[in-house]
Amino acid sequence: MFFVTDNAFSQKSISHKVEKGETLTQIAKKYNVEISDIIKLNPLTLDHRIFDEYITMIADYYFIRKQQLHVDELYQHHGRYGYSNGFNTAAIIALLVGIVPNIPGFLLQIKFVSSTVFPVFISDLYHYAWFVGFFVSGIVYILLMRTPKR
Fold first, then answer.
1. Could you tell me which of 15, 47, 59, 143 has the fewest CB atoms within 10 Å of its CB?
2. At what angle do helices 129-146 and 89-99 cross, to 10 degrees?
3. Would the pTM count as exceeding 0.70?
4. Where are the domains of the chain?
């Protein structure tokens, strides 16, 4: 659930429950507002860290595939882009490994643990969660994808 309004400076706001599959574009059109206004009103709900999983696509395209796509194979289950049961295990592992360094800071942020539990430098990583997740996931994904398949 988040708020929408006719502009970010309006005194009138509307609460909207997001339905499964609903996009920001659809919601913005429904209420005749700009997507940027919705984001301004909902900074925690629409945090930029939700986009960490895109690093696997970026790493794959630039570093693994060298910007070369074979369009005819994009939709083939057994082609060069097909993975085990439709899931790229390396991408899932890379995403999870990229999240791990941010867990201590998150636990401190929600006051689940004492501030003395983790060293300060580890808990401070959470302030840079997007960058940490992006680079850790990217490096892990590249390493896993470059490993020869047996």
1. 15
2. 150
3. no
4. 2-46, 49-146
